[in-house]
Write a structure and sequence with these properties.
The protein is of the alpha/beta class. It is built from 18 helices and 20 strands. It folds into 3 domains: 13-234, P-loop containing nucleotide triphosphate hydrolases (Rossmann fold); 252-340 and 437-520, Rossmann fold; 355-435, no CATH class. β11 and β12 form a beta hairpin. The structure holds adenosine-5'-triphosphate. It holds the Pfam family ABC_tran.
Length: 520
């Protein structure tokens, strides 16, 4: 096996005056940032500020329009990601890239460029054990990746980069699918490596808590420009927020008005299979009333995906019933339209948009309703839909109104929606789903990966929907979000509702214990 860790240790990476243009749009405007060797550097910025673009320029995914990258003070040609890897630059993403059906050891060995055609597994595992002992990470090498918890998977992703010889690592929102305890463990280990001088880290994050707890330095981007940089210890969270947004953040939670009315959604004695095919989702009773937000709390993988699939008609019930406004509901597209049920799934770019179509078209049509069933304007009238298609000017005008009303940052309504940053795709999807009459709104992790301003905007919109009488089911892995927004919450554990409580006054520690499957 080739020596995985380079003995030279952490390297310095510097962006020098990087400008990146996409057509006439300037995503990065002469951005410079020095990531000191052995430092843990946070990269902050609102959605669309240019963080991913900067990182892609550093890692050789994009060729910058102008400017350059220095590695240990020497100009480096970042012509491709392979090139960056040869120089010791690696990247860990928000979502996992491991092959789920292979073991940890298999994933590590096949990631190597020089992986032999015939592999002596005993020797490889012994070498991997020895390698792992030089790092703070401990993972079961012979376990299949799909049997690992999220925190362990993220450890393997980082370990893989170390194994490939990375001495500079970009972490792109690495903790978004981890519990706070897992996040602290993973980032604590990463920090130990930087402190030992083995690794330099650049972490994209929206979580100030993590910046404060783990980062030495921070660089803040706003609309493609550096608005601040410095030692974290010298800056308050307010300072950093101000650099990000150009104003002090408003942290008051959205105002709740009115009291819940009659039941809109009810699940009774529902039974369905789970994704693994071995377990079961079993919900005896779950109700959401008009003008009420019910939060579904739980650690990811405890039935949230299956619950969403049941509600959207993608998972059949083995038993039990689902009612909307007192009548049985099977969640077909036609029913959803007629009963004014709307969904905001996770990862809307993938699950609720046509990425190559324009922002305006995506605002006008619910693409998962495609196939002649599209609901043009939220009223569900086919004739109006046809008229809508013909009325491009009307569509553009309506898009402009939604773009302004929901503060969607796009260079134009005609731009393909896939060119928008994550937060702006989310706003666009919510803008579309909240247009017209909505009796039931089902949302899943609506603020995943979003910055403050976007989080605030999206939460306000959800609260407004509640205040105007919509029944909202909020499935979220973010307990704080549920405590801020929900009237009532349930905890989902291993496919079952194991606890229910009003949100006001609920004790997060006790809820954490329920989420972990322990009785409080
Ligand atoms: N391939 C592209 N073509 C056109 N515009 C793009 C492209 N990639 C990014 N942009 C634009 O560049 C800007 C910066 O996007 P980027 O993805 O770097 O932001 P970000 O700070 O990473 O945001 P987020 O926190 O939402 O991930 C955005 O306005 C985006 O619409």
């Amino acid at each position: 096996m080739s020596a995985p860790m380079d003995p030279e240790g952490a390297i310095e990476v510097e962006a020098v005056g990087i400008t990146m243009r996409f057509g006439e749009f300037t995503a990065l405007d002469a951005v410079s940032a020095r990531i000191r060797p052995g430092s843990f550097h946070a990269l902050l910025g609102e959605n669309g500020a240019g963080k991913s673009t900067l990182v892609k320029c550093l890692m050789g995914f994009y060729r910058a329009t102008s400017g350059g990258v220095l590695v240990d003070g020497r100009e480096a040609r970042m012509a491709s990601p392979a090139n960056a890897q040869r120089l010791g630059l690696g990247m860990v993403y928000q979502h996992f890239t491991l092959v789920p059906s292979l073991t940890v050891a298999e994933n590590l060995v096949i990631s190597r460029r020089d992986a032999p055609a015939r592999i002596d597994w005993n020797a490889e595992i012994a070498a991997l054990e020895a390698f792992m002992a030089t790092t703070p990470f401990r993972v079961p090498l012979t376990r299949r990746v799909d049997r690992l918890a999220a925190g362990e998977k993220q450890k393997v992703e980082i370990l893989k980069q170390l194994y490939l010889g990375s001495r500079f690592m970009v972490l792109d929102e690495p903790t978004s699918v981890l519990t706070p305890a897992e996040a602290d463990e993973v980032l604590g280990h990463v920090r130990a490596l930087t402190q030992a001088g083995r690794l330099t880290v650049l972490m994209i994050t929206h979580k100030f808590r993590e910046v404060r707890a783990f980062a030495d330095d921070v660089t803040v981007l706003r609309r493609g420009q550096v608005t601040g940089t410095g030692r974290v210890a010298d800056l308050s969270s307010d300072d950093m927020a101000q650099m990000m947004m150009g104003a002090r953040p408003d942290t008051t939670p959205p105002a709740r008005r009115g009291t819940p009315k009659g039941v809109v959604l009810s699940l009774t004695d529902v039974r369905a299979g789970d994704r693994s095919g071995h377990g079961e989702v079993a919900i005896d009773a779950l109700n959401v009333r008009a003008g009420e937000i019910v939060g579904v709390a739980g650690i990811s993988g405890n039935g949230q995906v299956e619950l969403m699939e049941i509600l959207t008609g993608q998972r059949q019930l083995r038993a039990g019933r689902m009612d909307v406004a007192g009548a049985p509901y099977r969640a077909t597209r036609a029913e959803a339209r007629a009963r004014h049920v709307r969904y905001l799934p996770e990862e809307p770019l993938r699950n609720a948009c046509a990425p190559r179509m324009s922002v305006a078209e995506n605002l006008a049509f619910r693409v998962f309703d495609a196939g002649g069933d599209g609901d043009a304007d939220g009223t569900g009238e086919g004739a109006r839909k046809r008229r809508f298609w013909l009325d491009r000017r009307g569509m553009m005008a309506r898009a402009e109104t939604l773009i302004e009303g929901f503060d969607i940052r796009t260079r134009s309504a005609r731009a393909p929606i896939r060119d928008l940053s994550g937060g702006n795709v989310q706003r666009a999807a919510l803008a579309r789903e909240l247009t017209g009459k909505v009796d039931l709104l089902v949302v899943s992790n609506p603020c995943f990966g979003l910055d403050f301003a976007a989080v605030r905007a999206i939460r306000e919109r959800i609260m407004e929907a509640r205040n105007s009488g919509t029944a909202v089911l909020l499935i979220s892995e973010d307990l704080d979000e549920i405590l801020d927004l929900a009237d009532r919450l349930v905890v989902l554990s291993e496919g079952r509702v194991i606890h229910e409580t009003p949100a006001a006054g609920a004790d997060p520690k006790a809820l954490g214990r329920y989420m972990a499957g322990q009785a409080a």
